[in-house]
Design goal:
It contains 23 helices and three strands. Helices cover 61% and strands 2% of the residues. The N terminus is likely disordered. It has three domains: 110 residues, no CATH class; 125 residues, no CATH class; 268 residues, no CATH class. It has 586 residues and is an all-alpha fold. It has a three-stranded mixed β-sheet with strand order 1-3-2.
Length: 586
Amino acid sequence: MKQFAISLMILSLLACAQVSNDLTANSTDAQLLQIIAEEQSYQDSLNPFNKENNILYYDASPQALAKHNDKVSDIYHRLKLIDPNGLTKANQINQTILAYKLKNDIDSYRNLDHYMPLTAEAGFHAYMTFMVSRSSFKNADDYETYLNRLVALDRYFEQQTYWLKQGLASGISQPKVVLAGFEESISAFIVDDATKSDFYRPFNNMAKHISAEQQAQLKAKAELIILENINPMYQRFYDFMVDTYIPNAKQTIAAKDYPNGAAFYQNRIEHYTTLTLTADEIHDIGLQEVARIRGEMEEVIKDVEFEGTFAEFVQFLRTDRQFYATTPEQLLKEASFIAKKMDAKLPSLFKTLPRTPYGVVEVPASIAPKYTTGRYSGPSRDDQAGNYWVNTYALDRRPLYVLEALTLHEAVPGHHLQGSIAREMENVPEFRNQTYISAFGEGWGLYSEFLGVEAGFYQDPYSRFGRLTYEMWRAVRLVVDTGMHMKGWSRQQAMDYLARNSALSLHNVKTEIDRYISWPAQALSYKLGEITIKSLRVEAEKALAEDFDLREFHDQILKNGSIPLSLLETLIRDYIEQKAAAITGN
């Protein structure tokens, strides 16, 4: 039966790719498509939100993770044996991206990432509420399944706690210094009133075709499970973190201090940046970018005729009330206005626009205190919109002068636009719609902030300084991430460097540095990705001159979804060469 399902999937992939009869006969392409279908079928079989699987939640047991690694390693090995020269260009892209995805699964298991299922921002316990958006609530049976899933979470929490204990015993834990206050993200889920729990949300607006009697029974059952299962589960995890994990966590901050730490950090560099740069090379690029951006920031200070030093100007921005919203609603409305303003500019920058809409919402209160200032959350189902999350916690640390840059990065033309175009790609294997590669996605997000200049944003000099401070923020990351993890920098040294070179609030400085400590190398992807996209644009502008079409160039960048930077360079240079040849008639 499973082989039959895989065969059907292969036929579907061939049809989706619109391959000719001659092409489908190509044994190399057919071999690749069979592996793609097998991998997709395997991943689908693990999804607890697929009703056919009859799985309540993910299995994180040692046996399940080892079995998963064996399966993924087998698929990866067979995938790498395929000669890309025998594939169509479309399938060369498919092979490259699937290999990237599978290799990270294997590397993560080898690196013992499962020993640390949390970062300074949050962890598995905070992401449980995403099951609400991923679950279906069309009938009473759906609600029963959801309630059974809540009960099953206890096993998952026990499994994750087991891995955290293994991490402590092996010297692989989050550094103690970044976990101050972490317990608040756990206690936020322990409620006196079950109806106020995030897990109760599906019961607030139940389908009208479910009888009143059934609704009452399901609601009562939900309240009981939250009070007798969910609350104690979170309390046990809270006690473990406060009494055992945090007191015994790693004392140093550097990734190189983990077992095989230098190799681990280099592996994470190559994964997150998709480049083969060393930590020293990235550090030097960061220093050069910091110096360049700092010069532009000094020019803005001159333009506003501020009489004082750079540090005094930054202090003015951090403390003057004119730069801060006074209510969460004001901040959300301002972010929404900026987003809507950019919506109207999109046709002048892109030929292809996505169908998926997006909303502007606040970061969930349970994770807001230690969470970044904003983030994009894509839809988990076809009947949902994307969401641009704005952090409304501690409003005096959320300056308005950076809001234009933040909004363009997280919403449009940044993550929502790029991610939606990827999800809406047709005639590609399913995994392509779901792939997210940090160097590409975050590089595009930072490039999107720059696009705001060309779209007429940042007219206010303080907002212009805000854009530069956001670019500086990403350049500083190259310096402090490599500095802390490989060059002996202290946490305070990194915070001082970020604070000294940007106008980020001191609260954001602390949360960001802790994020880099707890998530090695991920922060390197933004600036290196943006540098690559900008350099490709310069190449295209020089080669095509008056025939350069910015809208077409952007479509070429985004049309293949999220891809490694080396592949992006190849594809864009092919586009430049082909267009130049078409113009000259050669």
